[in-house]
Amino acid sequence: MSWETIIGLETHVQLRTKSKMFCGCSTAFGAPPNTQVCPVCLGLPGALPMANGAAIGLAVRGALALGCTVHPKSIFARKNYFYPDLPKGYQISQFDQPLATNGTLSFLSSERGIVNATIVRLHIEEDAGKSIHDRFAKATAVDLNRSGVPLIEIVGGPDLRSPAEARAYLLTLKQQLEYIGISDCDMEKGSLRVDANVSVRRAGEMALNTRTEVKNINSFAFVEKALSVERDRQIALVESGGTVTQQTMLYDSKENSVRPQRSKEESHDYRYFPEPDLPPLVLTPEFVAEQQSELPELPGAKRDRFVASYGLSREHAAVVAATRAVADYFETVAKTSAEPQHAANWVMTEALADAKDHNDELRVSPAALSQIIGLVKGGTLSHQAGKRVFAEVAAKGGDPRSVAESLGVIQVADTNVVAGWVTDVLGAHPTEVARYKKGEVKLLPFFVGKVMRLSNGKADPKLAQRVLEEKLAP
Amino acid sequence: MSDAKAVADRLVKAKRLNALLTPPKDLRKSLNTQIAAARPTGVLYGMPVAVKDNICTLEFTTTCGSRILEGYRSPYEATAVAKLKAAGALIAGKTNCDEFAMGSSTEHSAYGRVLHPLDKTRVPGGSSGGSAALVAAGAVPAALGSETGGSVRQPAAFCGVVGIKPTYGRVSRYGLVAFGSSLDQIGVFGRSVHDAARVLSVISGRDPRDATCEDRDPLRLPTVPESLQGFVIGLPKEYFPPELDPAVRRACDRAIRIMKELGAAVREVSLPHTPYAVPTYYVIAPAEASSNLARYDGVRYGPRFSGAADLRSLYRSTRGQGFGPEVRRRILVGTYVLSAGYYDAYYRRAQQMRALIAQDFRNVFDRGVDLLFTPTVPSPAFKAGEKLADPIAMYMSDIFTVTANLAGLPAMSLPIGRAKGLPLGGQLIGQAFLEDEMIEAAYALERVVPATDEA
Amino acid sequence: MSVSRDEVLRIAQLAELDVDEETLPTLAEQMSRILDYAAQLSAVPANGAVRVFVPGPDAIRFRADQVTPSGLAFGPDEFAPAFKEGFFVVPKLGQFE
Predict the structure, then answer these.
(1) Residues B1, B87, B147, CA angle at the centre, nearest 5°?
(2) pTM to 2 decimals?
């Protein structure tokens, strides 16, 4: 019996604005509890929402980057339910007239190649506060700093066919949104959250079966694990004669298991109705065009351009275009040094390795890296020496040439000096010289090595080799 | 320029009406502070204005006539209140009202009913009964109230004072505790048209904190006209049914005669969807209220009722005990009409009917009518307890007032006579954002209509 | 439109309102009356052609993305019924998960 897994993801993404969606409170992360609050986001009697224009702009950009149809008129709606971190007893969201619909997210599935997943809709809403259940005994602590932070909800269709695809989709979505700068998309910080809809069906079936919703997935790795667990649970259930009931499953990362959220007495009836405190959200063509113009080159287009303009392989292009920061960095280095292939190599190896250990910071400036590339290419530094200089500049800054000098790694390219070393080496190894002259040309690297030793690594190995060849010639 | 003691004394003298929720001691203390701080250059300098208790003030508490906000001190003030203070007015206490503005008699306050100033066995109307009573008793020259379905005009008519409801979006709702968000507006009571209009002018105008408040300058007051020459006044026949109280009809007839004498052209018009106005209102208002009142849960402000074992008990006991029966009833009706399966049949239909009602008005105004004149209420102030048994009986007192809230139009009531000593009100309904024309006509009528004469 | 006792209970649960056993029948009856009265609205044709009406501005005016002062004269510690270590405190969730 072979099974097909059907997965659709609902993603909530926090938008990068200074202030909240409906009030002027700060959205800064990490403030002491309940210090970034006001009558509006506290839900005090008489308070009213006022929509953040920048948030709407970022939401439109997100929709455009996902190829959605952006609707010139959309309506805010109230989603009514009770929870301690939902101060008004309703969330201002969008319901039957959302900001955008019908987009696509193309990602690479290791099983199926390129998959064009549908984005059913993208809408704007406000975040709720935070409920902390383990701080006080027998009580819940509520912090409303997060209440009112702008979110977009991105609903994907049931187009994913495996937990691995779900992860790939999510990583691609994150890249896309991070690229256009509308969100940090950080799952650890909560600026990207995902819930998954999962169902299974026998291979060949056309209809979709009952699905469950999986929540509490807190990292990209857990996405794959949680969905695998739920898929396996459903398959086991059906194979043993049971049926899947529609319910919400909570993922427990410690146990790597899912359990049903304790069922409520009644199912959610959110009683959506248009938000009477907010007029319709009307977007002028100029506004939408402005958001379009603010969109940077998207990852796919950038990768293609790197391959075409800089002659990079697809794989290398993907690596250096992975994030906007790295892509911009690479491109500056490529242009300044006029050595795109070298630039790519240096970025992929030294720069990214260093960044990984230092909070993703690209510590060597593009100008400095270009210089290092130039020095290596021109023979002033060996590749090894270049790496040392890179590490030194990364840690302590400074001008690469000066750093190279103080490290004493500048290659000596003075023919006379090198000739002197060559002469010394040849003089010290007459046996090998004789053997070489009899035809053992494989001894050349031996001589080069000796010259490098004698010169403490400073000799330009290529020059040394040339001089050796000349001097050893019959 | 008022003297804090004199202002307080006048208010305390009206104590028996139970119209003021602010204890005299707190009132006196605050007035002293306020007078010292009041801006002498303000156009309302020194004018004491009482404020309905569903409008947030930094002075005193804001209870909305409910137990669920007993003792609640708002940490911010309504925009309208800030504007009053910027104009030098004094916030002369908070007035009693039907709980969360839900009612037409002020009998649904958790703090006891308000007495009609002329007859203590009768109601002053509602929900802004406290504000109306204080102005009628001469305790303050003006007061703020709020309207969702007639809660300023109806008590104004019952008490014999002027009551104005502005166009929806004329006055900021920021700080007005929400009941029916698409219907609510802060309104003004005054002893005279001028007092009420002055205060309305001050509190009106754009507010960056209210998205439903239009981006307009404050209302400019018209001058008192010589006559009503050039005014075309429509009389919608649906508001003059055969069963209209005879005294009300006589008073209206007299007012209409005076309009003609003042040079107005008067003609009969029709607003055919009027019979559907009250049911429409009683779907939309409770629906929005059920959502607006969800925030009262005992979590962030207000009192907590009896130690709750868990969160659900906290919610249900706070709300079950904190809300009175009328509020609970409306929340339940509102929740019902929004719930799955009923939204289309009730809420959506009501919003559609609302469009038809608004269109009725547009049709009439588009045909050259400037203002409409109608009775404000079908009969004078009723006896306390008379309409408590059947909620619908109470709702029917809104029959002439809800249409203006549904259509978002400005409307006002002014005294036009008496029926066995009880005041009768006549209503003017104006075009959107043309309060000045409505007020101009009111000025003219006020001068001539014998408001305290038996009809 | 008759609202049953059970429906009143269900709606009360949705609205998180305690309703007394004894008042249930009266409440059900009153709600039925009100909803019957409201049912007159079926006079409106059901088609979507009749648009809805909402007063107020036609479009949202955007607010600038700036951090502004809270406008609170005093903080939650002064108006919250239960406040500890900077947090609002509520009883444990119980079945309210």
Answers:
(1) 110
(2) 0.90
